[in-house]
Structure formats: C-alpha cells, structure tokens
Amino acid sequence: MHRRSFAQLGLSLAALPLAMPRRAAAADKPLRKVRIAVSTTVLNVGYPMLTLPLTLGYWREEGYDVELMPVGASLQSIQQMVGGNAEFGEVNASVIVQANSKNGLPVRIAMGNGVIDWSVAVDANGPITSAKDLKGKTIGVFSLATGGIAYFNSFLRNNGLDPAKDVELVPLGLGAPPIEALRSGKVQGLLYWAAAIASFENAGLKLRKLVGEDWRQYPDYTLAVMQATVDKDPEMVVGIARGMAKATVYALANPDCARQLHWDRYPSTKPTGADPETLVRWDLNTQQAQLDSLKDAFTLNGGKLWGNADPAAYDRLVKFMLDTKQIDKPVAASSMMVKIPDYFEKVGRFDVAAVQAAAAACKP
C-alpha cells in the first residue's frame, strides 16, 4: 500500500422513536448503502477499524450496508468523495489539510484514527544509532514524492544536518527491492511507514528504528467526509464512526482474535510461503503497527472518547505543513471538524466493557 503521498451523496434517515433500541430499528428498516474509499490497494490485516465492523456486524446494527473501496493513495479517496462515488474516505490527515487550504474543498474530519508512524529503519547491529549518524548515508524511500520525506528533512535539520547535502534519497518502491537494498548495503536506511517496516521485519531484517521526537504528536490516518454529507445525514456520520470506534476497541482488546476474524472473512489476504506459526507471527506484526497507531491516536486526541479528533493536534499538523511549505496559507482545524452537536459523545455511546468482553470470547 502507498499510504503517504474529492459523495456528496447523503442518505436520509427517517426519524425513529427515541425509545426504540437501535438494533430493533435497524432490523425493521432496509439497510442503506454507504461507501468508504480507503487509501490503500489491499485491505490486509492492518485495517481492523474498517474490516472488523463488517465482520462483527457493527455497521449493520447501525442500519448500514457498507462497502470498502481500496482506491490507492489519499488523493484518490478525496477524489472519490468529491465525484460522488463514496460517502467517506480513510485518508492521511495532511491531504485533508491540503484540500481545505489549497483547494477550498469542504472536506471534514469525522474521526481520528492514527498518528504519524514513520521511522528510519537501519540495521539493528550496525553503527547508525542516531540522526547524526545518517550524515553521508543513502536512504531508501517509496518514492521521492512520498509524504514522510517532509518529516525526515525536519528530523535532519533538528539534528544539525542539511537534507540537501548530507543525505541522499533513493526511490525503491515496496516489496523485495528495499529489503535487498538494505541487505546489500546499497542503502543504509529505509524511510517508510510502520506497516511497511513490519513487512521488512517479516522478511527477516533485524531493524533499529530512528524516529523524530515529535512525529507521533501529529495526527495521520483520519476518517474524512464532505460537508454536504454531514448536512444531509448527520446520523449516518455518527453511525459509521461509532462502528469504527467499536472495532478499534475490539482489536486492541484481542489482536489475535482480530487477526483470526480477518483471515476468515478475507482469506485471499492471508500471507503464504511459511509454516502456520510463522504466518500468524507475520500478520500479528503487521497488524500491531496499526494498533500502536490507533492507541497513540486515542491518547493524542484526549484519551477519553474513542475516535475523538482534537483540533489542537490538527493545528499542530497545519503549522508543520506551513513550516515545511506543503501549504501556503493556514486553515483552522476547528473549521475542518464535523460540526454535529455532541458529535464525539454520540460516537462513543456504546458499552466499551461489553465490546472488550466479546473480544475476549472471540466470537463473531
């Protein structure tokens, strides 16, 4: 998946009696179709907040028949929403900022899912132990346009290095090339996001990870929605986000159960080429990269409401993007937030302990 680089369809929800339980109400009404464009090419085990609501029926309980649409990079997800082909997009937060600041598009933040999880991976037994040791080194990246480079350059400058002179970047893509490049010494480090780094570890690399102190203080993966969709069907926005919040709690409570359920529903994404125990270890490692990001995002966004998006965190990202010239003018994070009364409180109205108990029992 290439994670780092515009739905105005809203479905009206008839008013329901306040005393009617959500499950009963959903059962009495036909499910409404909702599409989520996901910024990846393959929905592997690393997307439990999106795949588990389907497996566990969380979105059906809310009254929605959800289709996940892997579309590539975040820009493509935004384009799918603007073009009316998706109601939501799971995208990098920086793309939401750019859409609002540079293009004036009313893309809104519906849920905070992750943090910046990039790192510079180097040989665990090698001499590189700090940013200063990167001077004169060659670093492999997915592409020369990949989003992590802005964070990397800031990391170098903060440690007294000149990105233009002291380090060389080489585009390597994904798969075997970056692995072989590090093994052969063609590069001395790999600048990639956490799930990619996990895949390199699965292939046998022993890695030490260098990370900027501020990187995980910036939000990243975010559920996006157009303002027109919020205006037309706010209850749908709440329901979709609530399903994702419940799935996040479930996966964090029992990662191996989340892995088992993913393999059962999406057998084609199960890794191959090793014994069963190794395959389990590989996918748990891949999944853990996302779980760590989900957990850190919960803390970053206040640590009280699952899925909450704290404007202060997104304001920090806006400032960083201004400083690194990714945008030319600021945009207030508060203007990008979904504005539904008590929105995140509504998203969090579910029994967390019950979800955790269901995860412990590990039954669909």
Automatic annotation (TrEMBL):
Pfam families: NMT1. SUPFAM superfamilies: Periplasmic binding protein-like II (SSF53850). Keywords: Signal. Residues 1-26 form the signal peptide. Residues 55-257 form the SsuA/THI5-like domain. It is found in: Periplasm. Its main location: periplasm. Transmembrane segments: none annotated. InterPro entries: SsuA/THI5. Belongs to the bacterial solute-binding protein SsuA/TauA family. This is ABC transporter substrate-binding protein. It comes from Roseomonas elaeocarpi. The lineage of its organism: Bacteria, Pseudomonadati, Pseudomonadota, Alphaproteobacteria, Acetobacterales.
